[in-house]
Amino acid sequence: MTKLNFISIIIVLFMLPLGLSAQNCHITGRVDLPDLQGKNIAVLNMNTGKTLATTKIVDSTFAFDLEVEEPFVGMLKTDSQSGNPRSYYYLRIVGEPGNIYADLVTDSLSGTQLNDWLYIFSQRCKREIGAINAYYSKMDKMVSMPSEEREKLAQETLDRTAKLFVMMKDIYNVNKSNPLGAIVMEDYLEYEIDDYESVMKMLDGAAPVVTTYQPLKTRLAAMEKVSHTAAGKPYIDLDLTDYKTGKPIKLSKVINGKVALIDFWASWCRPCRAEIPNIKKIHEKYGSKEFVVVSLNVWDKPDGQAKAIKELGMTWTQLTDATRNATETYGVDGIPQILLIGKDGKIIARNLRGEEMEQAVKKALGQ
Questions:
Q1: For every residue of 226-285, which 3-state class applies, written as one string?
Q2: What is the 8-class DSSP label of residue 195?
Q3: Cα–Cα 20 to 30 A to 137, which of 16, 104, 177, 277?
Q4: CATH 3.90.550.10 is the classification of domain 1-227
Q5: Domain with CATH 3.40.30.10 in the chain
Q6: pLDDT tens for residues 3-38?
Q7: In what order do the strands lie in the sheet with 98-103?
Q8: Could you tell me the CATH superfamily of domain 239-364?
Q9: Rounded Cα–Cα distance for residues 179 and 112 (Å)
Q10: What is the predicted pLDDT for the residue at 37?
Q11: What is the CB neighbour count within 10 angstroms for residue 240?
């Protein structure tokens, strides 16, 4: 199915009346895992955070009956598996009148209008993100690649990512009056491709089921914090640790009136490691009394940081934040986060990558 056909069908689909009187929502499904037999599974309202019902998984199956007045974003969530509190299965659903079927192992979802289209949307995103991640896996080996092949790979990644964002935005725009719009917007914001003001404009005219969706409100609160350290705003000083000496150091002492490229990274982060060759090239080409490169290690372990610095030949300034203050101050919830600060102490750009990073540095240095 083409993108245009997919979106057109959704437009027609959601012109249909959904009804507001209380009706039965019958949810059945499977969790075919030995460790979860006899364990609980719950259905949650993701807007209120409340558990609406709980039942047992028996012979790999479960069932719920709920009274629903209007559709809402829900989640099916199992007990933890094998005593690990983070090892549980979950699946987002739309609670709406009708018969809904869900398989938490295969992520299958079907039975009602909104859930059918949530499944299609989720599967499309899964395929695209899988392809994009495959590109990033190859980028780990970029150091040994010819420059032309490296640039082609990077451009393919950017093009495919851009198409994914367009698809998500289009689907949101035709579903901003129902719970699917809330889910799509939540996923869209995971990638931080729009600023706070742009997102607020997208939400203009959206139904309360979207604007009051709690996970979305939490994300918007974080984005508002990012807006305080957006391009054009003065950078905020940080208390950090100098990697070489282990002593406290302020970010302002390192920058000291220079143009500064700041890279929030971690040793375990594949996309972070993929950008290191680009940063290394910039450091070697432009490093001077007027320009400094700073790698700011976050969410990491000392051993991992030390090993990566040696493996990747990171000879420029290395700072560490073990408190999470740096990421909270700058609203960073995903890495790499690479920003450029001008001589005047104002942030020139955030979310820099690849070639655009070098171009931004050249411009800031007047070259």
A1: HHCCCCCCECCCCEEEECCCCCEEEHHHHHCCCEEEEEEECCCCHHHHHHHHHHHHHHHH
A2: -
A3: 104
A4: no
A5: 239-364
A6: 434 444 444 444 444 444 679 999 999 999 998 999
A7: 61-68, 23-30, 98-103, 108-110
A8: Glutaredoxin (3.40.30.10)
A9: 13
A10: 93
A11: 22
Residues in the chain: 367
Distance CA 138, CA 192 (A): 23
Q: What is the mean pLDDT of residues 187-193?
A: 82
pLDDT given at position 345:
97
Q: Are the C-beta atoms of residues 276 and 305 closer than 8 Å to each other? A: no
What token pair was written down for 8?
């057109």
Contact indicator for 289, 256 with CB cutoff of 8 Å: no
| pLDDT reported for residue 1 | 40
Q: By CB neighbour count within 10 A (0-12 exposed, 13-18 middle, 19+ buried), where does 120 fall?
A: middle
Q: Where in the chain is the domain with CATH 2.60.40.10?
A: 1-227
Which residue's entry shows tokens 């725009």? 173
Q: pTM higher than 0.85, yes or no?
A: no
